[in-house]
Amino acid sequence: MTKDKRPEWTDPSQLENFSTLVRKGVELQSDQTFDKNKVRFQKKAGSGPSIDELYTGVLQGDRSILARSITLIESNAEQHFRKAQELLQKLLPHSGKSIRIGITGVPGAGKSSFIEAFGTYLCEQGLKVAVLAVDPSSSLSGGSILGDKTRMEQLSRNPRAFIRPSPSGGKLGGVHRKTRETMLLCEAAGFDVILIETVGVGQSEVIVRDMVDFFMLLVLTGAGDELQGMKKGIMELADGVFVNKADGENKRNAEKTKAEYNRILHFLQPATKGWQTKAYTCSALTLEGIDHVWEVIKSFEEGTKGTGIFDERRRRQTKEWMTSMIIDQLQVNFFHHPVVKEQLPKYENEVIAGGRTVTSAVELLFQQYYQSKQTELP
Ligand SMILES: Nc1nc2c(ncn2[C@@H]2O[C@H](COP(=O)(O)OP(=O)(O)OP(=O)(O)O)[C@@H](O)[C@H]2O)c(=O)[nH]1
Ligand SMILES: [Mg+2]
What we know:
single chain, 378 residues, alpha/beta, 7-stranded parallel beta sheet, flat, binds guanosine-5'-triphosphate, binds magnesium ion
């Protein structure tokens, strides 16, 4: 048909004049796109399930929904942050019912093997176990502990267990927040025990200590010199010191090490009021003593709940968490402010060159920061 032979406009209601007919189709939802190649609707990238869907899924213990919710919390994107916060707010009343256990120890102490053994034991007792990690290096390297799932092969296949590697940092204090919020999600999903692993090499033990009820230190035999060199600080954080690898020929040594630790612990300030931190032996290999670890933790829980110390610590931890988030926000706000970014190097140079005192530089910097903040106000 040539152009000029086309009929004039015809009223569509005169259906007999049409050989084909355009019908009203299915409307495209705001969170959908239409994929021409596959000829079907797709959810727009990033939209994902609704908050209500996530909420219900997490409460029902749906593992894939739980994993997606954690991904939302771990995301550094602004729109995910808002959605995650809304979800957490809804789930908050369902959290808090687990026992939170922190595990630290030098590389090679057997943390992964211990979690495999202990976690499996707990599952056998009918409990549900979530394993999280705080990796001090992750914000730098992007890597994470618990990457070695090979050491937790059995546990990672257990339907009662849920293992989540350490999140990567993003903003200041990011890992801290993400792990705490992930813990709350896992609690809402019905996990009875939360194990949080961290390598005992610095600040991360203190961060984990502030998140958990019971903090355990995993150590090796052959204390002697090692024991002397060990930071008293980390032992003062622990509610229990466990000498791992107490098996085979190492067993006697482990007993000796245990006695040495007990001697030292006796003189230290206990980590938890009303609870004497002691040393014990265990083996992640033969499983000897693993059940006793749980007995120790249960008796700790009973005792501290009885005296109110348990709840008091949780309240204090929440308060301190808030304080630390305020400090993070202040830091980010200050150091990312354009005026500070511009002026800081100048003052640094002046201070380094000896032309200005640190106090005066800081004062001037804050003056300029506050001034520009005031002009920003509506
Ligand atoms: N004999 C014996 N060997 C153990 C025991 N627990 C762990 N091991 C071994 O010790 C080595 C280190 O164990 P891991 O569980 O990887 O230790 P880790 O603390 O997780 O180490 P990092 O992940 O490097 O921090 C492995 O070769 C384990 O097989 C135990 O109870 N007895
Ligand atoms: Mg490990």
